[in-house]
Amino acid sequence: MSRAKTSLAALAFALTGVTACATAPDPDAEANAQLQAAMEEALKPATPEEIEAANNADPLTKANFWAKEYSKNAENLDNALTFADALRGIGSNERAIEVLSEIMVIHPREPRILMPLGRAFAANGNPLGAARAFEEVAAIEPGRAEAWAALGTALDQLENHKNAQTAYDRALAIEPLRASTLANYGLSLALSGDLAGAEAKLRQATDLSPNDVRIRENLALILGLQGRFDEMQETSAGYAPDKVVEQNVEVLKEMIQQSPGEKAVRSQIAGQTAAADASEPAPPAEATGLRLRRTGG
């Protein structure tokens, strides 16, 4: 074989070696590609079917599902709102406040964040924080009755009844037939000493929502505070066990007899007021008792 042919054969062999090396798989690159693919799969948003299943699951399962969705994209407003709602569903109000506060940095003065934030503050025993959140919503969206009504409830919990009643007036000017607002307005009037005004508001609320146990309880109690025990008993009839109704009447009679005046009675009742969260469901009839109960919104 000539020298030229030998050189060409050597060159061909060398090129074949280079090609073989170039096409051989790189273990590190393959592992990185698999890791990248796994990360992309893990960060994919849930499908509509998965979301529907989670939302129909028990509260803890729902909260865990939305915790994962939130971790995928903490800047997504809808994910944050749904996660916070799920957290409130399992009583984790402090964590809900954290989530809503974090997303509000990205979406400042967003009413969709401020309303649930106010409710979470209220449920966590912070009516001042709740009032500030609701007040901001009312300033941004002054035509939103829900915000004014919630502000009234928070102010009542701060014993600022005068301003609470102004907030209720604003809410009712927008939605005059809002039964829950009328009921809470009635409680506010009762706690500030206007039993006749409280009765009027609660009767309006009862006409609009006759099956709301809490509203009827409050009306019955206001009637009892005015010494109208037969009417009190009649109002509660059918919505609470007879023994509970009779016990309420007797307890209230005793309170009035022992107290030096109406102001003292109101003070005792105010101490028993249930500052219910706006989303709290109405209690069953068996749970009724002698206390004022706030209604939603």
What does this structure look like?
α10 (161-174) runs antiparallel to α11. This protein has 297 residues and is an all-alpha fold. It has a domain at 179-297: Serine Threonine Protein Phosphatase 5, Tetratricopeptide repeat, CATH 1.25.40. It has 16 helices and no strands. Residues 260-297 are annotated as: Disordered. TPR repeats lie at residues 145-178. Residues 1-24 form the signal peptide. It holds the Pfam family TPR_16.
What's the helix and strand layout?
Blueprint: H1 3-23, H2 27-42, H3 48-55, H4 59-72, H5 77-89, H6 93-106, H7 111-123, H8 127-140, H9 145-157, H10 161-174, H11 179-191, H12 195-208, H13 213-225, H14 229-236, H15 242-258, H16 262-271
Region (Disordered): 260-297
Keywords: Signal, TPR repeat
InterPro entries: TMTC_O-mannosyltransferase, TPR-like_helical_dom_sf, TPR_rpt, UCP035836
Predict the CATH topology of the domain at 179-297.
Answer: Serine Threonine Protein Phosphatase 5, Tetratricopeptide repeat
Model regions low in confidence, pLDDT < 50 over at least 5 residues: 271-289
Percent strand: under 5%
Radius of gyration, whole Å: 32 Å
In terms of structural class, how would the helical and strand content be classed? mainly alpha
- The averaged pLDDT comes out at 81
The tally of helices reads: 16
Tell me the span between the first and last alpha carbons: 100 Å
The coarse silhouette is elongated
Helix-strand pattern, N to C?
A: HHHHHHHHHHHHHHHH
Count of DSSP strands:
0
Helical content, roughly?
over 70%
Region (Disordered): 260-297
Keywords: Signal, TPR repeat
TPR repeats: 145-178
Signal peptide: 1-24
